Amino acid sequence: MLHEIEGGYVKTEPNEGIAVIEFFHPKGNSLPSAILNDLAQEIHSEGLREETKVIILRSGGKGAFCAGASLRELVTIKDEAEGKKFFNGFALVINAMRKCPKLIIARIQGKCVGGGVGLAAAADYAIAVEGSDVKLSELTIGLGPFVVGPAVQRKMGLSAFSQLAIDATMWRPADWARRKGLYAELHPTAEDMDESIQRLTIELSHTSSEAIAELKKVLWEGTENWDELLQHRAMISGKLVVSDTTKTALEKIRNR
After folding, report:
1. What was the pLDDT predicted at 251?
2. Whose CA is closest to 95, among 57, 174, 151?
3. Helix, strand or coil for residue 15?
4. Mutual orientation of helices 80-99 and 115-122 as an angle, nearest 10°?
């Protein structure tokens, strides 16, 4: 199934128990609200499909895995309600990944910024290639990684999350992300990464669906309040995105 969106797309390809969900946007695989909403829906739908045992979440192309929120869309937000609605898109995706009874393996083929780090963190197992550096850049434009923060902190710990959130201009190398637990594996080439993903997902596709669902519950214990928590965080971001500080920062970026 293919959904074309603003020059990008979200598509799902199920095959023998393995569903590949791929998103793409020409601006560094950034995430406008339409892609966020489709991603959340596709993850939810595959979670309901009895035939699906494991999901591979990936992005298209050979560049960045994900550049985070769509700056083009952020500039157009007029009020707090619109801002909350936009950032709630990230909440929908993270909560869909959290609740999905299938294991989600993320394929990280390039750099992750902002919401891209959130996607990697919300995956149950992330496999990356060298060069997949990470950055939470939100503070540089008067925002903060509020919605993705719980997922990043859960996966990497408060110390690593705070380092990323506070030093928002610094790229952390992929090996740092692996050592801090964001990536389960780091490979020298895309071919090696894909071989590992294929091996793991084929193994998982022959595993008990019930056992996977029960494991997923265990892995996500303690996050039962995230429906409310992430909506509250979206409200914070929605308020900040229409501040003079953020509007000025976004205009500077757009006019570069």
Report:
1. 84
2. 151
3. strand
4. 20
* Residues 135, 159 contacting (CB under 8 angstroms): no
Cα–Cα distance for residue pair 190/117, rounded to 1 Å: 19
- Measured N-to-C along each axis, helices 226-240 and 149-156 cross at an angle, to the nearest 10 degrees, of 120
Helix (H, G, I), strand (E, B) or coil at 201: helix
Mean of pLDDT over the chain: 95
Name 187's bridge partners.
129
Query: Cβ(49)–Cβ(12) under 8 Å?
Result: no
Residue type, 204: L
Location of structure tokens 């937000």: 77
Mention the CATH class of domain 2-190: alpha beta
Residue 1 pLDDT class (50, 70, 90 cuts): low
Q: What is the pLDDT of residues 44-53, one digit of tens each?
A: 999 999 999 9
pTM above 0.90, yes or no: yes
Query: Which residue, 241, 195, 224, is CA-closest to 84?
Result: 241
Sign of CA dihedral 86, 30, 150, 58: positive
- The pairing of beta strand 103-108 with beta strand 185-187: unpaired
